[in-house]
Model the fold of this input.
Amino acid sequence: MKNFAHYTVEEFAAEPLFIRWVQQPDDVELSNFWQVWLTNHPYKSDEVAEARTLVGQFSDTYMGMTSQEMRTLWKRVLESVHTIPEIDPLDKEVKPLASAFYLTRWLIAFFVGLALVGWIIWKIY
Done:
């Protein structure tokens, strides 16, 4: 378990679990976790509120997707990675490794872009 008690606003805003909580408020398990955590760490409520605002602004501006649309998009990405023509003729033992390589490459590109946009927003505000 991560020690969120020492997180800054920026660290909360970059934390995948926190981002999921802000973007998917209907997730009961996540909501319960963060509500209990905030009850146990009330001194962090201002930082959490500011980080929620940051994530919310980014999500509204750049994502504009519901959680269902996001799941559909990831499903399509995964399906397309598994059907890349270059890896179809590969041996069944090698194909999962090649698929993982292509997926990793896309994920790295996505997160680098996300970090760049976050840095730009941070510099602007």
Notes: Helices lie at 9-14, 16-23, 28-40, 45-63, 67-82, 95-124.
